[in-house]
Specification:
The complex is a heterotetramer of chains A (627), B (167), C (499) and D (102).
Chain A: H1 6-22, H2 31-55, E1 62-71, E2 74-82, H3 84-107, H4 114-133, H5 137-155, H6 162-193, H7 198-206, H8 212-229, H9 238-241, H10 247-256, H11 261-268, H12 270-275, H13 279-298, H14 304-324, H15 328-355, H16 373-387, H17 393-406, H18 410-435, H19 442-447, H20 453-468, H21 475-480, H22 487-492, H23 501-522, H24 530-536, H25 538-545, H26 550-596, H27 604-626
Antiparallel strand pairs in A: 1-2
Chain B: H1 2-23, H2 27-47, H3 51-75, H4 92-112, H5 128-138, H6 140-161
Helix pairs in contact in B: 1-2, 2-3
Chain C: H1 2-24, H2 31-55, E1 64-72, E2 83-89, H3 91-110, H4 118-137, H5 141-162, H6 167-196, H7 203-211, H8 217-234, H9 243-250, H10 253-276, H11 280-305, H12 311-332, H13 335-366, H14 382-396, H15 402-417, H16 419-444, H17 460-478, H18 481-492
Antiparallel strand pairs in C: 1-2
Classes of the chains: A mainly alpha (627), B mainly alpha (167), C mainly alpha (499), D mainly alpha (102).
Chain lengths: 627, 167, 499, 102
């Protein structure tokens, strides 16, 4: 079964075609088909997993490929490779996809283009699965672009809203800039090794097939793609705007799966990164900066989805840090746990939005725990997992990352600890302001109620996962489920995990500082106390609120530089190339004609004179030539 | 010897009257000079002992064409207008230059080329029969076409010069 | 078998001419008769084209389905096979034949709604199509040029009579520039035939002469620019591209489709046939220059398209950009790059045909092409928008559609030979995303401008055409090997093209 | 006997005078008369060559006849045009008949 894991991608692919073509005419616009599809790939995943584990470590990675195209010496094979990293990704994608599909049935009820929403969701799942299954960079790139397309379509689902269209455009173009880098990197690899296959490339690089500088440059290009997709500084701008899309989409695409594709790519290529000089340090620095930066910005956001978005960016930064420190398992583990609790938080936010009839500004919420107990409870679990409460999922994975960074240097460790405190801080702020205290807008609160089972069940399931997912790190837990050991051992056969109680203490201390700081600030506060900062340091607050002017800077760059250049080129094309070059030739001809026409005097004697002169000239010429 | 003297006299006279045609101040004088010039060329044909063509020259040119020209002069009333305007156009000096250049070229070529043999060595031979045969046998088709041309020109002249009803 | 298939080519070439001849005798008032007749002809041609493409043996000799009828020989300086009607296809022309069949049929269906002098339109249209087929099939320099001109000249009337915005200007400029280019080609043809001294216009014979030194290297370098500039005008070579935005702006819908879809490819095809195949040494010498021009064109078109306000101008500049890719691919003289160029010809052909179809459909109703006049029309024209988005995404190079297949090959080939230019070419693809999405955002989405509440979606005929074109895009995007296999043998056998 | 050159020189002079007349004079009738001079010079040439080369065949002479015939036709037509011109524009001045220009 593992070698036929491509079926996982094929099922939603077919579902997409069916739903795009006939979805509108199906009963209930085909939402049952979407859920069925998600459920079946969830089930199929377990078949793949069982088979994969049965085959044993010696058979990994499981490969299967076919000849795709060939021109001369240029051969291209397409296929899948299933290894532990892939399995982790498959687990995340199939689980979250199923939850989101179920949740969407409730969330999207009565929304426009219901059928189209589900169809594109299947397209996304298909491409995302293809992305993680791909055994070669080209197929990965294909899937990479397709998930980008699905993301574009889903962000722009409410295209009647101008802001949604702008957000979709921004997401597509920003990631596209990164994709340019990725494609260049991929082709540079091919240029050096003659193959797109990731394993073969790794082998070639290990044999030293690519020179140091060149390898570094190539990896930087690859990293560019990863940064674009995973919204790392300075490509992070699209992700908060992407919250214009339906909330379940934010959970699936912009929290759990697509945005971690960059992390996945770096993890997948980590053996190559390790050989590429300082490339890993770049990864680490990018991750650190992102984690800190978005932690700060999240603190000044008032839209619950925006807070979550910046939190996601920040957590992706954590993952990059782990990878930059060279720890695949730490990065992947955080990816794994983060997927569950962040999907939970987003879906929880979705439940809030539905429950309050489309209110998502924290200033209008508050005190919801009474009205929506299930949502509040699950949201609390998710928040605590994100903040890193022992022994929830987020705690273990963050612990792993801190552990990983220890080896890099105290500065990195220190900065990451600050980022962890900020995580706890803004998470607390989010929860307190949304669910606790007194309702800040009675009108909103009075109409709020718990959404139906179809939406709360996924929340409960994900809350459960947020609690237990962290235990995968333990040897015994993994063994009991049939894995060769804990998460780290499964991923790259490392040593069994042992709890470092000192680090646990430190982590807990970070959590306590952040949480209590947040609680002290916002507990029962009718007023957002971040306004305290606004009064104390208005310039700093404004800078944070304006996201350190990144968006303004980009806007300026696009409006003034890019479009200005475009106007210049258009002008040049019209006036220089066309009006001067082409029409100029025409008018020169015209003008010459204008000058020469004056020879046509209309006076017979002039013509006669011309004839006579011509005859004499001809006679003289023929005399001179012919003798 | 006498022939040559006579020839020279005629040649000079032809040149003189031809010059008269183009330089005369009044058009009627030009016309009279033209008649003389045409007659002189006719005489040249006699020197060449080709009487037929000389006859044609006298008849058609000396008679018909000249009469036609005089008629035209009278119809356009230029003969008696006294010509207050200049008789030559602005490009007359250039015309003179070109004409002189042409003359130099023609004379130069004629003189510099060697003409062996003699002229009129077969003077006896050109009879009217020979010309007739040539005209009606060898050049039958052109002859007929020329006839057609004359007819067309004749009709055309009438049509063009006709007084129209509305004028 | 080979010659019997040659008659298929002859049929595809002669059928449009016959159709034009028959239409001459149809009274101008019988519009429906002319339409049905043309649709049938288009369908038959599509069938023949598909047959030619499928019957082309990927593993066989590069040149297949040859048919040779002697015409003028042993006269004057002409020797054996002096000028002969020599037809045949290689992998590249087989692919382009398919393109012609698809676009011509789609164009016929689109011309259905033409009311003004419909019959005369079809007559000229079929003459043009015949010229296109002829150019792709001809293996004789004389007939190559003959059909090339036959394809170009009817454009003047087609645009001048049935066009819109500034049609006289557009038609005049287009025709003069193309004919100017033809003069260069004609000079080059005579120079080559004279220099080879074989007394024949037969292309395979001359190709051999070009390779074995009968045409000296110096001459090749001298003549090559004539061919490339001559063909380059039609291929939208920068800076001789300016007929493209204006011409497309003026041309009626189905002419735009055929013109941008197929005719521009004649130019690039000419560069292969006359440049690379006939003058390999000249090609090697001049290709870096062509590469630079192609790259400039690709970037320049994309950047200029960013701020255009007219649909057709965007497509016109985008065509410049994409034909720039074709030239880049050819200039690499690398197997993958040249294959990519051929794929790009097909890809751009179907894609741009679809785009012009859609623009025409909108313009017929709205009578404006200014982007800022629109907004939110996805509400009233969902099919139209979906089709446009598909075309736009192919334009952007989204995997799964033909644009990616083609551009990927070009990029790979360019990186192997001139990495820096490869990077610039990829950058142009990123800019393509920007101008496409900008247009999507402004025109298709956002709140519906109430002025357009009455717009109608695609008509059934337009839908059929659009689906045909979209299927072609998907076919190449999803399943590469039927296309690349047919190109492989031809491209690897091109002189001077390295692996 | 008069040598051949003499005839050629004589006809050359007449012809050049005619050319001058055509180029310089303004009166249309006079221009026509100058044309007649040129035609005569040419006829003279024909006949002279006929006598010099092949008097048996009389080809040159026939040519001269044709020249005269065509000249007659030409004079007839041209004078008709002149009369027409005069009637329409009250002038026979060629410089003033300049409508057919740019």
């Amino acid at each position: 079964m593992a070698e036929h894991a491509w079926i996982l991608a094929a099922v939603p692919g077919i579902a997409f075609i069916v739903m795009a073509a006939f979805g509108r005419n199906l009963p209930r616009q085909g939402d049952w088909l979407a859920v069925l599809c998600a459920a079946s790939i969830f089930a199929l995943f377990f078949a793949v997993l069982a088979n994969f584990l049965n085959l044993g470590e010696s058979a990994w990675p499981v490969l299967n490929s076919i000849e795709w195209t060939a021109i001369g010496d240029f051969h291209l094979r397409m296929g899948i490779a299933v290894d532990p990293i892939t399995i982790v990704m498959l687990a995340v994608i199939t689980t979250v996809a199923l939850m989101v599909n179920i949740f969407s049935v409730g969330y999207m009820k009565g929304e426009p283009r219901y059928w189209w929403y589900f169809a594109v969701l299947q397209l996304f799942v298909a491409s995302m699965l293809m992305l993680v299954l791909a055994d070669n960079l080209l197929l990965l790139y294909v899937a990479w672009e397709l998930v980008g397309l699905s993301s574009f379509l889903l962000i722009g689902h409410y295209w009647e809203r101008r802001s949604a269209v702008e957000a979709a455009k921004k997401a597509f173009i920003t990631t596209r800039v990164g994709d340019v880098g990725l494609l260049i990197g991929i082709i540079l690899f091919w240029d050096a090794t003659g193959t797109f296959n990731i394993l073969e490339i790794t082998e070639y690089v290990e044999q030293g097939a690519i020179g140091d500088t060149r390898l570094f440059v190539t990896m930087m290009f690859i990293l560019l793609g990863a940064m674009g997709k995973s919204a790392q500084l300075p490509f992070h701008v699209w992700l908060p705007d992407a919250m214009e899309g339906p909330t379940p989409v934010s959970a699936l695409i912009h929290a759990a799966t697509m945005v971690v594709a960059g992390v996945y790519l770096v993890a997948r290529m980590l053996p190559v990164f390790e050989l590429a000089g300082d490339a890993l340090t770049v990864v680490l620095v990018v991750g650190l900066l992102t984690a800190l930066f978005s932690g700060v910005v999240a603190f000044a956001q008032t839209d619950i989805k925006k807070v979550l978005a910046y939190s996601t960016v920040s957590q992706l930064g954590f993952m990059f840090v782990a990878l930059g420190a060279g720890y695949v398992s730490a990065g992947m583990f955080h990816l794994f746990t983060h997927a569950f609790f962040k999907a939970l938080l987003f879906l929880g936010a979705g439940a809030v939005i539905i429950g309050t009839h489309h209110h998502q500004e924290m200033g209008q919420l508050g005190g919801l725990w009474r009205k929506m107990p299930v949502t509040a409870a699950t949201f609390l679990i998710g928040s605590l997992a994100l903040a890193g409460l022992f022994p929830l999922a987020g705690f273990w994975s963050k612990d792993e990352i801190l552990h990983a960074v220890e080896g890099v240097g105290s500065w990195a460790f220190f900065l990451l600890a600050i980022a962890a405190i900020m995580t706890a801080f803004y998470t607390t702020r989010l929860f307190v302001r949304t669910f606790l205290g007194k309702p800040q807008d009675e009108e909103v609160a009075s109409h709020s109620r718990e959404p139906g089972l179809v939406m709360t069940l996924p929340l409960v399931f994900l809350a459960f996962m947020s609690i237990v997912a962290g235990f995968f790190i333990f040897h015994g837990f993994g063994n009991a489920l049939g894995f060769p050991g804990g998460f780290g051992e499964f991923l790259h056969g490392g040593k069994p995990f042992h709890v470092d109680w000192g680090l646990v203490g430190l982590s807990t201390a970070l959590f306590v500082i952040g949480t209590f700081g947040g609680a002290w600030f916002y507990w029962n506060g009718r007023v957002d106390r971040s306004t305290v900062l606004a009064e104390w340091q208005p310039k700093v607050y404004e800078m944070i609120q304006r996201k350190f002017y990144f968006d303004d800077l980009y806007q300026f760059f696009i409006d003034r530089v890019v479009l200005g250049f475009s106007y210049l080129v258009s002008w040049f094309d019209r006036f220089a190339v066309n009006d001067t070059g082409v029409d100029g030739t025409a008018s020169m001809t015209h003008y010459t004609g204008f000058l020469l026409k004056h020879l046509q005097t209309g006076r017979v004697p002039n013509y006669a004179m011309a004839i006579a002169v011509g005859v004499i000239a001809l006679a003289l010429v023929s005399l001179a030539v012919g003798g | 010897m006498t022939t040559e003297v006579l020839w020279w006299i005629f040649a000079v006279a032809i040149v003189a009257v031809s010059a008269g045609v183009v330089f005369a101040r009044t058009v009627i004088h030009s016309a009279i000079f033209l008649i003389l010039s045409l007659a002189g060329v006719g005489a040249m044909y006699l020197f060449l002992t080709i009487e037929f063509i000389a006859l044609v020259q006298f008849l058609i040119y000396g008679g018909a064409v000249t009469v036609l020209i005089l008629l035209a002069l009278m119809l356009t009333r230029m003969a008696s207008s006294g010509e207050p305007e200049p008789t030559t156009g602005v490009q007359a000096p250039f015309g003179a230059l070109v004409a002189l250049g042409l003359m130099a070229t023609l004379i130069g070529v004629a003189v510099s080329t060697a003409w062996p043999g003699d002229l009129g060595q077969n003077a006896v031979a050109v009879s009217i029969e020979t010309i007739g045969e040539a005209m009606f046998q060898d050049f039958g088709a052109p002859f007929m076409i020329t006839g057609a041309l004359l007819l067309v020109a004749f009709i055309g002249a009438i049509v063009i010069a006709r007084q129209e009803d509305d004028e | 078998m080979d010659e019997a298939q040659g008659y298929v080519l002859l049929t595809a070439l002669a059928l449009p001419l016959v159709a034009a001849g028959v239409l001459l005798f149809v009274p101008g008032t019988q519009k429906m008769a002319a339409r049905y007749f043309s649709a049938v002809i288009g369908a038959i041609l599509l069938g023949l084209s598909v047959y030619v493409f499928l019957a082309y043996q990927a593993s066989g000799e590069p040149l297949q389905m040859q048919l040779q009828w002697a015409w003028i020989e042993n006269v004057g300086f002409l020797g054996e096979n002096g000028i002969s009607l020599h037809l045949g296809v290689d992998g590249i022309s087989a692919l382009l034949t398919l393109l012609t069949g698809v676009v011509a049929f789609a164009g016929t269906l689109i011309a259905w709604k033409l009311e003004y002098r419909a019959k005369d339109f079809f007559i000229l249209f079929w003459i043009l199509i015949s010229g296109v087929y002829g150019t792709f099939f001809a293996l004789d320099l004389f007939f190559f040029f003959f059909f090339y001109e036959l394809a170009v000249v009817p454009l003047y009337m087609l645009i001048g009579i049935w066009g819109s915005t500034r049609k006289e200007y557009g038609a005049m400029k287009l025709t003069l520039m193309l004919v100017g280019g033809s003069v260069g080609i004609w000079i080059g043809i005579f120079a080559v035939v004279h220099e080879a001294g074989l007394g024949t216009f037969d292309l395979p014979t001359l190709w051999e002469a070009g390779q074995n030194g009968l045409i000296s290297a110096g001459t090749q370098k001298l003549i090559f620019p004539f061919f490339v500039v001559g063909c380059g005008v039609l291929a939208g070579l920068w800076p001789l591209h300016t007929w493209s935005p204006d011409g497309h702006m003026s041309a009626p819908t189905s002419v735009s489709m055929v013109h941008a879809g197929v005719l521009m490819k004649l130019g690039a095809f000419g560069i292969i046939r006359l440049g690379i195949q006939l003058l390999p040494e000249g090609a090697e010498f001049w290709m870096p220059a062509l590469l630079v021009l192609g790259t400039i064109g690709a970037l320049y078109g994309a950047i200029a398209a960013l701020t255009q306000r007219d649909f057709k101008l965007i497509s016109g500049y985008s065509s410049v950009s994409h034909m720039g890719y074709v030239l880049i691919g050819l200039a690499t003289l690398h197997v993958v790059g040249v294959s990519g160029a051929a794929l790009q010809m097909f890809s751009h052909g179907v894609m741009t045909a679809l785009v012009f179809l859609l623009i025409g459909s909108l313009y017929d109703q709205a009578h404006t092409r200014d982007l800022s006049d629109f907004g939110g029309i996805a509400k009233v024209m969902p099919l139209w928008v979906i089709a446009y988005v598909v075309a736009g995404l192919a334009n952007v190079g989204l995997p799964g559609l033909s644009g990616f297949t083609a551009e990927f090959h070009i990029f790979v080939g360019t990186f192997k030979t001139y990495p820096v230019f490869g990077g610039l070419a990829i950058l142009a693809a990123a800019i393509a995303a920007a101008y496409m999405l900008r247009m999507f955002g402004v025109v298709f989405f956002g709140p519906l401008n109430p002025r357009w509440r009455e717009l109608k979606d695609l008509s059934p005929l337009e839908t059929v055409s659009a689906v045909l074109l979209i299927l072609s895009m998907l076919a190449m995007g999803l399943w590469w090997s039927p296309f690349t296999d047919r190109l492989a043998n031809t491209v690897t056998n091109l002189p001077g093209v390295t692996g | 006997m008069v040598p051949m050159e003499n005839y050629l020189v004589l006809s050359g002079i007449i012809f050049s005078l005619g050319v001058y007349g055509v180029l310089a004079r303004r009166n249309a009738v006079l221009v026509l008369m100058s044309v007649e001079l040129m035609l005569n010079a040419v006829s003279l040439n024909f006949v002279a060559f006929a006598a010099y080369l092949d008097p048996d065949k009389a080809t040159g002479i026939v040519f001269a006849v044709f020249v005269i015939a065509v000249a007659a036709a030409e004079v007839g037509l041209a004078l008709a045009i002149v009369i027409r011109l005069f009637r329409n524009r009250s002038t026979a001045n060629v410089d003033e008949a300049a409508t057919m220009r740019w």
